[in-house]
Automatic annotation (TrEMBL):
Residues of the DUF58 domain: 201-285
Keyword Transport listed: no
The UniProt record lists the keyword Transmembrane helix: yes
PANTHER family: SLR1927 PROTEIN, SLR1927 PROTEIN-RELATED
Name of the protein in its database record: DUF58 domain-containing protein
Pfam families referenced in this protein's UniProt entry, alphabetically: DUF58 (PF01882)
Species of the source: Dactylosporangium roseum
């Protein structure tokens, strides 16, 4: 009751003040009718406080998020269900669910009175344009009486978490040579797919059947090579995301970093659904073997938390990939690279592995003066040429590019881009 009295509204306190004034006037003037008025004025807010206070601790609340995981730009529905556990009806209730700024303003919903043991549900919609994990709640319920004389606030401590994952776009099917690696499950992709000349071979070991000698490989390597008759093949791919803050430009949902994260999510999901044993690596500490998890959700949850790394380093990224690399296709989404960083990546490609670089020209996310634009284009071209010369397939990613339109270039490369990169280096050499 004491706390209920503290919840009196301005109207309720005004009633008490009027009651006190009427009481004093009745004593001074000796009017008993004023005393009755004073009692009535005082009784109304006190009874309202008792009424509201009685129902305060007899409410239960539950919250449902539909769904718990949404893509950037999508909406989720929040359903609140309140039940009156007491025998007395409640007054009108004002509901306010606490939300982080990224999910919009706090919703305020009015729920009419609930009868004895009655339940009712209200719903609202949230939308997030920024990746992350957000807490929804706690719910604040304001209880009031029909006259608006008393208002009490109750907060339900429970919260739910909404995960906003990167946008995943469907990609066309593209043949990516070099994705097969030995060991693992036996698959129907074997010598018959690549032809006899591409049969898997290894060095001759003592005791091997001489009928398994592969003479073409022996002639090419100068060492006795034997065929692996039942080579288990599996499609392996590693998606590498460059999270260096200095390599990206722009802010908010339209930044080049967000494009790169969305591309990594889309490619990873596409390859998983195509049957690849997929791994995701970033220089911010993420190293996920997608073969060890069920569904795409846990993988996308990792990307929901990725942030630009202020101390990111290409050397660290390469080291993370090498730590558990067992062959297969490597697809990197890189921001701006210096010539030295491009050379590090060029040296990373070994054993004729197929490496595809989606090279984000994040300088195009800025409006640069003419001279600065020419210098940025030259630096970009020099780095791209270093990758091209080492055997990387380089896909140019300017501002406004759509990943589904760029994805086919991962299978065939971009000859026109190679010519432009070579021209940029020749111009840069002339300037020097």
């Amino acid at each position: 009751m004491r706390e209920a009295l503290r919840g009196l509204t301005t109207r309720g306190r005004s009633f008490l003040a009027a009651a006190a004034a009427a009481l004093i006037a009745s004593l001074i003037l000796g009017e008993r009718d004023l005393l009755r008025v004073a009692v009535l004025l005082a009784a109304l807010p006190l009874l309202s406080a008792a009424y509201v206070g009685r129902t305060r601790y007899r409410l239960s609340c539950s919250r449902t998020l539909d769904p718990h995981r949404v893509q950037v730009g999508a909406s989720a529905r929040v359903i609140l269900r309140l039940q009156n556990l007491s025998r007395l009806p409640t007054g009108t209730m004002l509901l306010e669910d606490r939300l982080p700024y990224a999910l919009g303003s706090r919703p305020r919903l009015v729920l009419e009175k609930l009868g004895a043991h009655q339940a009712s549900s209200v719903a609202y919609t949230v939308r997030a344009d920024v990746r992350g994990r957000y807490e929804v709640g706690p719910l604040v319920v304001r209880l009031t009486d029909p006259f608006g004389l008393c208002e009490l606030t109750r907060a339900f401590p429970s919260v739910d978490r909404l995960t906003v994952i990167p946008q995943v776009v469907p990609l066309p099917s593209v043949r990516l040579a070099g994705e097969f690696a030995g060991s693992g499950e036996s698959r129907a992709r074997s010598v018959a797919v690549h032809g006899e000349d591409d049969a898997a071979t290894r060095e001759y070991r003592y005791g091997d059947d001489l009928r398994r000698v592969h003479w073409r490989s022996t002639a090419r390597t100068g060492e006795l090579m034997v065929r692996r008759e039942e080579q288990p093949w599996e499609s392996r791919a590693t998606v590498v995301l460059d999270t260096r803050a200095g390599a990206h430009r722009g802010e908010g949902p339209t930044a080049s970093f967000e494009w790169a994260v969305s591309a990594a999510a889309s490619i990873a999901v596409h390859l998983r659904h195509a049957g690849y044993k997929m791994r995701l690596v970033t220089d911010a500490g993420v190293d996920v073997d997608a073969t060890e998890i069920d569904g795409d959700g846990p993988l996308l949850d990792q990307l929901a938390d990725v942030r630009p790394a202020q101390r990111g380093d290409i050397g660290t990224l390469i080291e993370r990939v090498r730590r558990r690399n067992d062959g297969g296709l490597i697809i990197g989404i890189f921001g701006l690279l210096s010539a030295a960083e491009a050379e590090l990546l060029a040296g990373f490609r070994v054993n004729n592995a197929t490496c595809v670089a989606l090279f984000v020209d994040s300088s195009t996310w800025l409006n640069l003066p003419t001279a600065a634009r020419e210098e940025a284009d030259r630096s970009y071209g020099v780095a791209a040429l270093a990758l091209l010369r080492s055997g990387w397939r380089v896909v140019e990613v300017p501002h406004g590019a759509k990943l589904p339109a760029l994805w086919p270039q991962a299978g065939r490369g971009s000859q026109g881009f190679a010519w432009r990169a070579a021209s940029a280096e020749s111009v840069a050499g002339g300037v020097r």
